[in-house]
């Protein structure tokens, strides 16, 4: 209300407790409290240049209400809404309530409890309380609270009453309740109840349990689990076989393992994370002003507070690991260090926290990825029965395909062949192919690459047996496979200046000439994609031969294969027609030589606005469309993603010029409209046209909802995002069904 830093009051309170030998606030005598009040008044007066603390109750009330409304536009509130994608124009409200007092003696108290464990989902009362305490004392972490179960011994009558109320509230709302209560002289007062925030693990377990208890339907269970929570369940955990040095053990407040550099304030955490460093935020206790640092951090460690403290609740909501109430961790904020287990960890030093066990561990320890199983698998099976959209995966190697299948992918939507060219054993051959002075010489180098590519496609087609595999022919400009022009220029110039023998740098001079000839002002709008294939058809002919020979070999081995050849960056139907003509000849030759029939397709990537606008013509030659939404977004907005995201887009989002980053969530009005035109006009030409999306938007729940409305057949995303997309597709289907009613 008065905008006075809270730590000034905390320092004064700690000084008073030291002076009078009090272990907690409640042990301070009335005289000590009167003295402390005068100290507090002095702090207010000093901070406000002589203006005293307001004494008129109505004035206090009005100012407090104003402070709550003003907080809507505070940094922590804006950061929270941005993180949770909550609109900034919703507005807020203030409740004005009369007080009951939990600090009236040992038969009074205050607490927070959940009807089920919000960390694990276990069906048991979970929470904490403090006797002879008031209001925020439990959640503020000022004193370490007692588990709610202890109230059964200390205040048995109140506990039995509380248990009955908790059951009644959960049955009524058909969801986990987060309840706040105060006990005044043995009488229980329920202050509020709301839907309880929970970890991803708990959300899944509770959803499945409530279906079994017939509290909710399967569809409701699917909606109770957010796609982002599935993502959280795929976080790392500490390898059980790893030898670790445990420095301290606190409360397991939010599960998952995280490592990073120790950071002791929110601003520093945010700055270091933006610089690409992994950090763990260390505080005595957190408060709402720390939220932006918590968003940036990999995890949170506090020395005070319980499982319902600010740090625990916020970290759980974000899906970040948190260890709270680690009282043996001595946090020295002024000197930016903490001491635990006989060690001192200074700011910038790495350590690990395990939010599932409460352990604080020295250094960086080995971690492993979890598997899909149990309740999560059940929820995803229910989601599969609801969704219409298929979920495919982007994968360039057999290991990607195997992982994608394990996570439930129904095909490969994007296999980027150029990634295979970058491997160490192949790059010299690729460079020799690019530097070739004639088509004949280029073909000799391509013949050396053919066995590599055939092996690549054999592996990925075998891993996806029975499912479609979309293989994109070479897309980036050739200069990406060559050394940097600037580096070569410096090396050659230095050699000339030193007077080195010509023979010693002749190869570099030749390479420099080749790179100079391939340089472009805007290479991503230059000689790449199908344009490269039309000027150097021998490159893509080799790739298609490798695809079909691998398919023939697998077919002979009894493996069911479905290769789909994607021609990128098409802007006119003639580009597609001519490229397809070259490649069809190669396909026919391979199949004729083998005497085998294989089901295959030719299609294209729609990544240019013109391609979307003439999709009806392009569909005459293409059997499938795949939207490359990364490039389609770049070419629609005129943004270079690499340059614009940090310099332009983030300020645009902050200033509300753009509602969101269009490279994270599909731009509905522009890019989405182009996609809609392409879908409608493409299917007018070819009614059975299969349409998907393979850009990074394929794993974004909001973008998946747009794909559902557009009537796409599938979305494709990274293998680890497949479970997220499966659930998001079910959510999108249910939302579309509700909208149609």
Keywords:
741 residues; alpha/beta; Acyl-CoA Binding Protein; D-amino Acid Aminotransferase, Chain A, domain 1; Glucose Oxidase, domain 1; 4 domains; eight-stranded mixed beta sheet; 30 helices; 47% helix; 16% strand; elongated
Structural summary, described in words:
The chain has 30 helices and 26 strands. By secondary structure, the chain is α/β, with parallel strands linked by helices. It folds into four domains: 6-84, Acyl-CoA Binding Protein, CATH 1.20.80; 109-198, ATP-grasp fold, B domain (D-amino Acid Aminotransferase, Chain A, domain 1, 2-Layer Sandwich), CATH 3.30.470.20; 235-368, Glucose Oxidase, domain 1 (3-Layer(bba) Sandwich); 387-477 and 520-740, Phosphoenolpyruvate-binding domains (TIM Barrel, Alpha-Beta Barrel). Strands 7-17-16-9-10-11-12-8 form an eight-stranded mixed sheet. Strand 4 (177-184) and strand 5 (187-195) form a beta hairpin. It is elongated. The protein starts with 5 loop residues before the first helix and ends with a helix. The model has no long low-confidence stretch (mean pLDDT 90).
